[in-house]
Specification:
Radius of gyration: 16 Å
Distance between the termini: 30 Å
Number of strands: 8
Strand content: 15-25%
Order of helices and strands: HHEEHEEHEHHEEE
Largest sheet: 8 strands, mixed
Shape: globular
């Protein structure tokens, strides 16, 4: 991600940070809980990419090691306060970091969770390639987001409203097929069937399993 894009996004998240929990906590909780359940299966050392204000941190079991990164220092400040206030000792570090270029060694995580961010990352391929780099063989990448319909009236509507929705930090026309195409070109992943969750299947949990 270039410096100008990073700066724009950091400023945007700084404005969102004070009200983010109020707006999204209840709405995203069921999806976040489903994502945590999926990502902690057979995993103890986990990366949450785009951890934000830490809405999902308390859903992780105490016996795992959780590392969180986010582009926004303002978001992470609120996440750190939450860790301290609630005694979330399983959270080992929270760092300002671009998910497209992380300071972690290769194959150092059992699983990666990316909740509500993958449709907003300016360079999807770079982010996924970086997730692949830091994930060990046999590990999982778990994405949770709204994924747009592939065809029909719903797909046409989502394409039409995409510019409007983007202004409030969402994406309406990002397709599961984009993830599937990346996995196919990468050649090291099996993509599971998306799991629809509240509200009414609007969000979906998508898990990619890396070959051992």
């Amino acid at each position: 991600m270039d410096a100008s894009t990073t700066s724009i996004m950091q400023k945007a998240y700084a404005r969102w940070a004070p009200i983010y929990d109020v707006l999204y906590d209840k709405l995203t909780a069921p999806a976040a809980q489903a994502a945590v359940k999926a990502v902690t299966e057979n995993a103890t050392r986990i990366l949450e990419a785009g951890v934000g204000t830490g809405l999902a941190l308390e859903y992780y079991p105490a016996n795992i090691e959780l590392y969180g990164v986010d582009l926004s220092a303002d978001m992470l400040k609120r996440a750190s306060e939450k860790v301290e206030r609630k005694g979330l000792n399983h959270v080992k570090s929270l760092q300002v970091m671009d998910v497209c270029k992380m300071d972690f060694p290769d194959a150092c995580f059992d699983a990666i969770s990316a909740q509500f961010i993958i449709t907003l990352v300016p360079d999807f391929d770079a982010a996924m390639t970086e997730f692949d780099r830091v994930l060990r063989p046999g590990g999982s990448i778990v994405l949770v987001n709204h994924f747009g319909a592939d065809k029909g009236l719903v797909a046409a509507y989502e394409r039409a409203v995409a510019p409007i929705v983007k202004r409030i930090g969402w994406s309406s026309d990002f397709k599961v097929s984009k993830v599937e195409n990346w996995a196919e070109s990468n050649g090291k992943y099996d993509v599971e069937q998306p799991q629809p969750v509240f509200p009414a299947g609007f969000f979906k949990v998508l898990r990619l399993k890396k070959h051992s």
